């Protein structure tokens, strides 16, 4: 039965239900419980933003705090995955991938292919991403295009509490390494989530709003920004079809292409940078495979090609907002040869 | 250096196995060296000859519960863990019949069914993984021990140092084996390792550090035996430093202009196979005839492996896109 819980609670519930179901599921990360070896409370934090709170006592011995050694513990999660566990490791902020990326892209991503199909690596790496918390340049990035580029990794970006739970359960059950992106500005977003366990398949985009005039392809937090824009545009008589990709690898090409075949117009809304991003990837896909349907050039709405600025005045300008999506949509609607 | 005078006696069968495995590694590597020179073997190949006592000294203490991670110089570790020699050779030749169906090559031979989590093209890539396999063994209560082999070069990587710390913090059943063969590519370990010995660093991670004459199988075996037993019993990790030299260059084709004449000296005076043979024949545990018989068997085995590899089919276009989850 569905009730309303937050995105944070949805991830926590998915972890708890899978840990209950399968004792090979373990969690590890910096302060995942919190307070290890310290004189005060244990389970002090449940992760830096409280996502794993409460699991330490519920599952004794299966929620591991780690030193600040991302290479060692992300690698350990990957090694444990080759040896029969299903670890969910938390790389606190995706910005920290720089200190452990080798273990992810040269080790985990390669094992299945490089070892001739003889290895499975069922590891999930949970990580927070995105701007909006005034966390500045090294705690706010959207680095999912970098992971999407690597064969062997699955890349998941839930936009809602419902998707967060279903995609996390799928991620844990999946036999390939999954990078699970949680937008830190979405943790308090509430929505209907069934109590029972359910898995959402990867590679199936979600049409979150139907409309015949223009296709907006987006993901993560930008789904909400795009829906806000679509609501405003509807008042002006423009009907937007909004597609939430949900996973960037594997990618649901068909849903994107079918929509553009119907609307003839595309806006891609992506919180990452403008080059070699999901925005450029979707644009290229449509330009290659739905060129004949296009009635206007593709528009991209992205963050600028700068680090994420700290000042609220600048960060608010940095993050794509509904007005920019509205403007881009009006551009493709109004385009004439 | 560990004194081996009071070593525990090994059975005749065990001694024969040890000799066979060390001889197999030597023969395999000498043969790959020769075949590489003829131009038939593609890519980057790093040979383990000279270091056999380390792989076999350690791995002869391991069983089916245990896992190792290796390095770019991984053939010896693979053979010591029982990976099929013909499949290894086929892999090095890039054949479909190889250990990884030709998708891995010399630097990525793996056989998880043998507790061999892969040679590794990334220096320092293995130690974090071994923390994970050790953690899995600990959580599942299998009694398994995990061993990370790395070189003197790898001993300077942050991954290795982080992993030793994590292994102590989590009290993991892990053993770290630093194979100090004197050179990281061309760079001397006497220059690149700031401490006198790699093993000295163990103190910084709260674990015992042991220095071993890496040319002495019995010393290596004994040090590993103690470390592995301690790990298996919940006593935590150990760092073992094997000191020796490699007989070939960093990779095949290396002109080795940075080296002195230590290889000639090592082959003549220190060689692990020679010392092993002298010791076991002096004590009467094995005879020269026993050893000669093994030499003959091994030569035949390697001949067969090379012949089969050369005759084996190459992978085809159909194999390019297998073992992936998505095709675009």
3D architecture notes:
The complex is a heterodimer of chains A (337) and B (328). Chain A has 337 residues and is of the alpha/beta class. Chain A is 36% helix and 20% strand. Chain A has helices at 7-21, 55-58, 70-82, 101-114, 144-148, 161-173, 222-235, 253-263, 278-289, 312-318, 322-334, and strands spanning 2-6, 25-29, 63-65, 86-93, 124-129, 154-156, 178-183, 190-194, 206-209, 214-218, 240-244, 247-249, 266-270, 299-302. Chain A has a 7-stranded mixed β-sheet, sandwiched between helices. The N and C termini of chain A lie far apart (52 Å). Chain B has a single domain, classed as Thiamin diphosphate (ThDP)-binding fold, Pyr/PP domains (Rossmann fold, 3-Layer(aba) Sandwich). Chain B is built from 12 helices and 7 strands. In chain B, the strands form 2 sheets. In chain B, strands 1-2-3-7-6 form a 5-stranded parallel β-sheet, with helices on both faces. Chain B has a two-stranded antiparallel ribbon with strand order 4-5. In chain B, helix 5 (126-140) runs parallel beside helix 6 (158-169). Classes of the chains: A alpha/beta (337), B alpha/beta (328). At the A-B interface, helix 3 and helix 4 of A face helix 5 and helix 6 of B.
Question: Which properties best describe this structure?
Answer:
heterodimer, A: 337 residues, alpha/beta, Rossmann fold, seven-stranded mixed beta sheet, five-stranded mixed beta sheet, 11 helices, 14 strands, 36% helix, B: 328 residues, two-stranded antiparallel sheet, 12 helices
Strand order of the largest sheet of chain B: 1-2-3-7-6
CATH superfamily of the largest domain in chain A: Thiamin diphosphate (ThDP)-binding fold, Pyr/PP domains
Strand % of chain A is: 15-25%
The CATH homologous superfamily of chain B corresponds to: Thiamin diphosphate (ThDP)-binding fold, Pyr/PP domains
Q: What's the overall geometry of chain A?
A: globular
Biggest interface, which chains?
A-B, 46 and 48 residues
Would you identify the regions of chain B where 5 or more consecutive residues have pLDDT less than 50? 1-6
What is the level-2 CATH architecture name of the largest domain in chain A? 3-Layer(aba) Sandwich
């Amino acid at each position: 039965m569905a009730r309303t819980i937050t995105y944070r609670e949805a991830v926590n519930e998915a972890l708890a239900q899978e840990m209950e179901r399968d004792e090979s599921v373990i969690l590890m990360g910096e302060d995942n419980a919190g307070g290890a070896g310290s004189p005060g409370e244990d389970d002090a934090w449940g992760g830096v933003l409280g996502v794993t709170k409460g699991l330490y006592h519920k599952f004794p011995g299966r929620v591991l705090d780690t030193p600040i050694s991302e290479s060692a513990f992300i690698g350990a999660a990957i090694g444990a995955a080759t040896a029969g566990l299903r670890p969910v490791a938390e790389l606190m902020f995706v910005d920290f991938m720089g200190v452990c990326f080798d273990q992810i892209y040269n080790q985990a991503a390669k094992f299945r292919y490089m070892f001739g199909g003889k290895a499975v690596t069922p590891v999930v790496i949970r990580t927070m991403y995105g701007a909006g918390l005034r966390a500045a340049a090294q705690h706010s990035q959207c680095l999912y295009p970098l992971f999407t580029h690597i064969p062997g990794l699955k890349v998941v970006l839930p936009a809602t509490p419902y998707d967060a739970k279903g995609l996390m359960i799928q991620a844990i059950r999946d036999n390939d390494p999954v990078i699970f992106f949680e937008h830190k500005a979405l943790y308090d977003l509430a929505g209907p989530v069934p109590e029972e366990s359910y898995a959402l398949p990867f590679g199936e985009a979600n049409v979150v709003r139907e409309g015949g005039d223009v296709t907006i392809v987006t993901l993560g937090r930008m789904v909400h920004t795009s829906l806000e824009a679509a609501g405003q545009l509807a008042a002006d008589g423009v009907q937007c079809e909004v597609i939430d990709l949900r996973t960037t690898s594997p990618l649901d090409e068909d849903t994107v292409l079918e929509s553009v075949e119907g609307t003839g117009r595309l806006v891609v809304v992506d919180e990452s940078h403008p080059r070699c991003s999901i925005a450029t990837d979707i644009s290229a896909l449509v330009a290659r495979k739905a060129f004949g349907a296009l009635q206007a050039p593709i528009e991209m709405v992205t963050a600028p090609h700068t680090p994420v600025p700290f000042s609220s005045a600048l960060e608010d300008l940095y993050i794509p907002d509904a007005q920019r999506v509205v403007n881009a949509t009006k551009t493709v609607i109004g385009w004439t040869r | 250096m560990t004194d081996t005078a009071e070593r525990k006696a090994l059975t005749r069968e065990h001694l024969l196995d040890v000799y066979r495995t060390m001889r197999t590694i030597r023969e395999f590597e000498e043969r790959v060296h020769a075949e590489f020179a003829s131009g038939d073997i593609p890519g980057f190949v790093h040979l383990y000859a000279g270091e056999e006592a380390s792989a076999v000294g350690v791995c002869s203490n391991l069983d089916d519960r245990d896992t190792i991670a290796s390095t770019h110089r991984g053939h010896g570790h693979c053979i010591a863990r029982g990976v099929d020699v013909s499949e290894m050779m086929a892999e090095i030749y890039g054949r479909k019949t190889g250990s990884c169906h030709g998708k891995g090559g010399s630097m990525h031979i793996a056989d998880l069914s043998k507790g061999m989590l892969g040679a590794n093209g990334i220096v320092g890539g293995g130690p974090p993984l071994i923390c994970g396999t050790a953690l899995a063994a600990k959580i599942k209560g299998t009694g398994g021990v995990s061993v990370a082999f790395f070189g003197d070069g790898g001993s300077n990587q942050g991954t290795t140092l982080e992993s030793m710390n994590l292994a102590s913090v989590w009290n993991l059943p892990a053993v770290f084996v630093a194979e100090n063969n004197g050179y990281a590519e061309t760079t001397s370990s006497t220059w690149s390792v700031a401490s006198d010995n790699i093993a000295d660093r163990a103190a910084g991670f709260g674990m015992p550090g042991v220095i071993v004459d890496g040319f002495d199988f019995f010393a290596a075996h004994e040090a590993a035996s103690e470390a592995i037993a301690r790990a298996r019993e919940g006593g935590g990790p150990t760092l073992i430093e094997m000191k020796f030299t490699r007989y070939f260059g960093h990779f095949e084709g290396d002109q080795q202009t940075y080296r002195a004449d230590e290889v000639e000296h090592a082959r003549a005076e220190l060689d692990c196979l020679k010392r092993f043979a002298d010791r076991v024949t002096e004590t009467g545990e094995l005879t020269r005839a026993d050893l000669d018989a093994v030499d003959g068997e091994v030569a035949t085995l390697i001949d067969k492996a090379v012949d089969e590899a050369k005759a084996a089919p190459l992978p085809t276009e159909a194999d390019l896109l297998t073992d992936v989850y998505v095709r675009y």
